[in-house]
Amino acid sequence: MTPCDSRILIVDDEVDFAKGIARQITAAFPECSVEMAHSGQAGLAALETFAPHVMLLDLRLPGMDGHEVLHQVKARHPDVSVVILTGHGTVATAVSALRSGAWDFLTKPVRGEDLIRSLSKAFERSRLLGENQRLTQLMSRSGLHHALIGESASMLRLKESLRAVAAASYTVLVRGESGTGKELVAESVHAFSDRAAKPLVRVNCPAIPEHLLESELFGHVKGAFTGAVNTRKGLFLEASGGVLFLDEIGDISLSVQTKLLRVLQDGEVRPVGASQSFQADTRVIAVTNQNLEAKIKAGTFREDLYYRLNVLCLRTPSLRERRDDIPLLATHFLQKTCTETRTEEKRFSPELLAALCRMEWPGNVRELQNTVRRMAVFSPGPVLEKEHLVFGSEDGALPGQEIIEFLPYKEAKSKLVDTFTREYVQELLERSGGNVSEAARISGLERVSLQKILRRLGVEPGGFRGMKDGGILH
Known about the structure:
Layout: E1 7-11, H1 15-28, E2 33-37, H2 40-50, E3 54-58, H3 66-76, E4 81-86, H4 91-99, E5 104-107, H5 112-142, H6 153-167, E6 172-176, H7 182-192, E7 200-204, H8 210-218, H9 235-238, E8 243-247, H10 254-266, E9 268-269, E10 278-279, E11 283-288, H11 292-298, H12 303-309, E12 312-316, H13 326-341, E13 347-348, H14 350-358, H15 364-378, E14 383-384, H16 409-432, H17 436-443, H18 447-457
Parallel strand pairs: 1-2, 1-3, 3-4, 4-5, 6-11, 6-12, 7-8, 8-11, 13-14
Antiparallel strand pairs: 9-10
């Protein structure tokens, strides 16, 4: 959803003010639908009939005030983004409204740039919520639990290539970074091929000692070596008619590479110690996350074997190449985790979903899956929020480095300072109960300096009288 597709409801008893706001919105977002209501009751009625994505809500309304309206909006339609409108002297109550679930607040008179910025963010939140719901419905309808998940351009290309590769009978090399789903691609090639009814035999090459890997792959006859008390057929012959999946092919020794090359060339397997060979109708799918070309230059991987394996090649894209798929993947993993742990269904807040999309994922899909699992297990309640990201890693740090949108230095610094100053002053006044002299003493500022800051921010100390709270000043 874009701002042009959005609906916004203005709830304010000042008719002329509401009309002025509506004109600013229409000028900035020409195709955005705007309606107005001039009382709390009328606003709640329009909530049902107009179904807005965003509500601009004045706190001072006749009859039912804005706080009660906000409470009912969050109870009935929690996905509506409520932006509070407040005059000077009511900043403390606006902060209270934020804690009650409002998305943002603006002070009157409203500056045009502040209005447009706040609404743009609210529209983005609504878009992410809609996308989240769509993904949840898609996952529940399509049963994609065992399929390659993704709708990005790179994943669509992979799926298209995969079906073509599956239809052939040649050897396949699947390449990609760790955690990108290479094993799932290999399984899919087998599943879509005419060998699907035949066995898929997996071999984790690095997990088998070199002196045993040859026997494991090609078999041996009784007495071929110490401990060979029985004849063994070997995995190549066990997979005959089907597929042999060689995981991490780059880790096998040169001696095993030589014997594997012979099998791929001749289609015949000779067990260790045997005097004759056996025909094997076995398709090989090899998987690696290593740079085989570099290993060839280093003399640790045979070039002729490389070309025998690399008849058809599939590359699994990294997660940074398919960020558009992160919401779909994360939603799938969340649903799967809830099912596996037999807990109530959970969902992501739009802020958390957006943060996941901005993260770097060096461990790719596997890292994302593990992060979602941890958050699902350790986060309380049905909604996973952005602050629950700390549960996503073992050490309590963020699981991936968030990508920060760089602003010009002065703008970034000003934004950071303003945000800190507003939060500091609000907590300062809460701690001092609105007493400016006491607040100046606590902060170490001159009373006059503090008053200048309050005026610049439009913060009225009187709104904090009677409040006592702790925060960053501890």
